[in-house]
Amino acid sequence: MKRSTKLMIIIAFAVVLTLGRMVWYQTQTPDVQPEAAEGQLDARQVDFSNSHSIALNGDWKQTSKSDNPLYTELPKYMQAEAAGTYEMTIQVGEQVDRYALSVRSLYSNFSVYANDQLVYQTTDSEKGPATPVSVTDLRADENGQLKIRLTFDEFHGNERARSLINVKFGSSQQIQKETYQAGLLQFFVGAIIFIHALYAFVLYLMKPKKIGTLFFSIAALLASIAVVTSDYNTLGYVMPLSHEWYVRTVYFSYIGLSFFFLLFVVFTFTKAASKWPFKILYFLFTAYLIYILAAPIEIVRYVIGIAISLSIAFSIIFLILFRTVFLSGERALPLFLAGAAVVSHVAWTIFVGNLPILEDTLRAAIKAGFYPFDITLALVCFCSFWFLRFFQTEAENKQYIEELETEQKRKDQFLANTSHELRTPLHGMMNMVQSVLEQEDKLKNRSRYQLELIQTISRKMSYLINDLIDVTQMKSNKVRLEPASISIEPILVGTVDMLRFMTDEKNVTIHMRMSESLPYIYADEHRVTQIVTNMLHNALKFTPEGSITIKVSADESYLQVKVMDTGIGMDSDTQTRIFLPYEKGNNSISESEGIGLGLGISRQLAEMHGGSLTAESELGKGSVFTLSLPLAAEQKDKSITGNIPFTEVAAAEQLTEQAVPAVSGYRILAIDDDPVNLMILKQALEVDGYHISTTASSADFIQQLDAEKWDLLIIDVMMPEISGFQLTKTIRSRYNLTELPVLLLTARSQPEDVYAGFQAGANEYVTKPVDMIEMKTRIKSMLELKGSIEDRLRMEAAWLQAQIHPHFLFNTLNTIAALSTIDTDRMMRLLQEFGNYLQTSFNGKNLSSTIPIEEELDLVRSYLYIQKERFGERLQVKWDIDRELQFFIPPLTLQPLVENAVLHGLQPKEEGGSILIQLFKKEDNAIIHIKDDGVGIPPDKQRFLNTSEGHTDSIGMINTHTRLQKLNGCGLLLCSEAGLGTTIQITVPLTELTEGKKKTSTP
Asked: Which top-rank group of organisms is this from (predicted)?
């Protein structure tokens, strides 16, 4: 915002404040304001039934003890010399029945007489009234006159103290209305300011470092007190104060609000809060506030005064806010306007109202009532300031959070990349050491020991790298569980045997105690193994000597695994932090080993299973870690013997690399920039009868690709000359997915890397370090699938009625290839459904005239399952099937219609849609509905069922329509609207099909 714009806003705001007051005072001023002369006031021209009350201005008749009359104006302030009796006769005529008098002379004793009758007298001769007094039900005499006599007896203040005298006359109804309205406005504004003080104090409690918020809270509290003690003194209605404490309260609230508002502005918008000029100012204000509370009331008014204090404070506030608004930004502009509104209120109340140049009517209006709008505008501006600051802070925080998340993702990506890159050479080193240990029989004991030590250290490094990979995946919610009903026993036994190397140089024994029969748990076997490994690894690491006991028990819902050690233990502070990332405790062992991720990952995995992982420990006395996992719904009988010492536990059988049945004759071409990897790959695959050729050059790879025929390509992603992604794209420009499968190898396993590989055209994606059994299995599956597809494609021409398009096969294969890396269970299910689909499609029964409806539905289910795996959430399938209906239907009736709905109705929609398949009985017919909410069929294309020309993209529907008409005499009924979807109805007479069923079932 430009400075000129800000200046215009400030000027416009000042004009609004001034005009608002003038309009207010104009509306509060009576239309006619008569003046009394020599104690006589002619008010007959005033319409008391509609007009505001009038001020009794002009000459009053003052009488002394000698009863010598003296005509003078009513004193403006009640002081000692103002005591006396004042009379005025008001000529009112016969306008209203009852009149009233409003008298404001706080803390002074006075009496009111009407037509020489006492109508009011202060009851407390020591204090006087603490609030304005309304004397109602005054009646004029038979001449339409009302004689008012005021007697001021005593003022309970000092010679410097004074109280404003204000007397107004009007109808009883009007006086009561004005008094109630003024008091209510004053109380309402004070309450609103008090609420602001409360929420500011709550904000301070939430963030104690924001000391400016506390200053604002105190300033708002004092402002609310100042409001309710000024003018009509609303506070006096609920909590009457003596005159002494009333004066102290007024002074303290006004001086305090200026002081604390000054502190708020200085600490919020300047960096000079601690400089010596401000320190001196703080000291002076603090001393003055103490003086107001402690000094004798007779001299409180002698020092400085409210006007000077407010002028100093708000001048500094004005300069700071003005400088902030024009130098920093518009965020402080609402606060500046709020300060201007407060200054306006104080200025009009203290300064302007006492100016002698003002007309008596205006001066009376200023002093007579409470003006609420300056303070209200100030509150609105204060709220705008806080909200503006909140939204700007929120926007800044959002920006910082986005930047932090970006940096966090970069850090996680760095950890993931680094971990994968470290894992490949680490596993290569471990495999080489293992090969040397197994193949070399003439190694010296020292050399063998050193190689075993390298292997031990490598295993520890492998655990750390795996933890880093897991923690990055968990942060991005990429860890998925594959729960099943499993036994805990083999996991524990295998983990104990795997970690035996850690006890070679320690005097530690491991015991397992289990009940005779343990239930099965419902969990992911791989992840449970990881949790148990971390628990036992942690116990071994922090147990220099002694024993570790694994105790397993179960209750009705959970199985508990306790790992109890006699190690160094933990203090209470360490126990609160051990499950946090990168926390390791404060002992010498933890400082030298690990990075503090294993236990945190284990707890998260346990909670993902619906269980828990807790720790109990005492320093120097060991620790107990308890893992709870939910039981499986279906249990099997088993028997486990307990209390098995570690020395007696049989070692788990070594998993040897079982040879994958060879498929001889297949030719494989592999490329990798690392000759060692190529050598290992060549030796491993040639054993199974594959003919494999390897190269480290992309140019040589392309040359061999063109020179010979290959059945499979193995490509490393990270190569210096050309990436594996680009090389795959080049291959896909020449060969499709089934003609030449491609297997990508890489150390990167992030989902975006996997997706990039499949988008480039890969069939499979294997991460390094390569598990050779897994790789051989994948190679065998791809080659067999390639051969199977080639056979199926050759059969497609003979089974044209099956309506299976090659692109459907290719898309399904792509989906199978993608799931093979991401979710093997889903891949196996998809392969099963795909096989069922192919088997049903090419079944010899398709040559029959009819088949059972359940077989046709099975084909549709398989097709929709395949498509849903491909399209994901974009395709929603709903079934509403009456399974009691059993009848026959022409083969391949529903599948082409469902395929048309998916491909031509839902696929064009970016967000996808849903398809509903209904089967129900209506009278003697079976009704089948196929509904989708896709793009619909345009009207010009809906005629193809009734014409002979047809459309190339509707062959399946026309074929089905024709076969149904020939068999049942009733074809397809189609209802479609562009943009709303399509509904196809098939009506099948049950009686005719029952006969058909009997005929077809007869041999």
From this structure: Bacteria
Q: Which amino acid is at 718?
A: M
Handedness of CA 801, 807, 810, 814 (dihedral sign): negative
What is the per-residue pLDDT across 412-460, written as a single tens digit (0 to 9) for each? 777 777 777 777 787 777 778 877 877 777 788 888 878 877 877 777 6
Q: Using a cut of 0.85, tell me whether the model's pTM lies above it.
A: no
Please report, to the nearest 10 degrees, the dihedral formed by the alpha carbons of residues 806, 808, 814, 818 taken in order.
-160
Could you tell me which residues are beta bridge partners of residue 714?
670, 743
Select from 1003, 988, 762 the least CA-distant residue to 890.
988
Distance CA 521, CA 295 (A): 80
Whether 128 is covered by a domain: the verdict is yes
Cβ proximity of 375 and 345 under 8 Å: yes
Give which of 541, 427, 566, 561 is closest to 491, Cα–Cα.
561
Give the domain CATH number at 512: 3.30.565.10
Domain range holding 348?
182-388
Regarding whether 245 and 102 lie in a shared domain, the answer is: no
Whether residue 194 is found in the same domain as residue 112? no
Residues 61 and 94 in one domain: yes
DSSP 3-state of 60 = strand
CA atoms of 436 and 178, how far apart (whole Å): 105
Q: Which of 185, 21, 10, 177 is nearest to 102 (CA)?
A: 177
Count Cβ atoms below 10 Å from residue 172 Cβ, excluding itself. 20
Per residue in 855-902, pLDDT tens?
Answer: 888 888 888 888 887 788 888 888 888 888 888 887 777 878 888 888
Per the structure, the count of domains in the chain is: 5
Bin 923: left if φ > 0, else alpha if -120 < ψ < 50, else beta.
Answer: left
The residue whose two tokens read 């509150």 is 379
Strand order in 558-565's β-sheet?
612-617, 623-630, 558-565, 545-554, 507-514, 644-645
In sequence order, which residues have a C-beta less than 8 Å from that of residue 468 and are 6 or more positions away? 415, 416, 418, 419, 595, 597
Distance separating alpha carbons of residues 135 and 176, to the nearest angstrom: 9
CATH of residue 191's domain is 1.20.1070
Tell me, yes or no, whether 572 and 707 share the same domain.
no
Q: What angle do CA 757, 763, 764 make, to 5 degrees?
A: 75
Q: Would you state the torsion angle of the CA atoms of residues 675, 678, 683, 688, taken in this order, to the nearest 10 degrees?
A: -170
Contact between residue 627 and residue 535 where contact means Cβ atoms under 8 Å apart:
yes
* Dihedral sign, Cα of residue 47, residue 49, residue 51, residue 54: positive
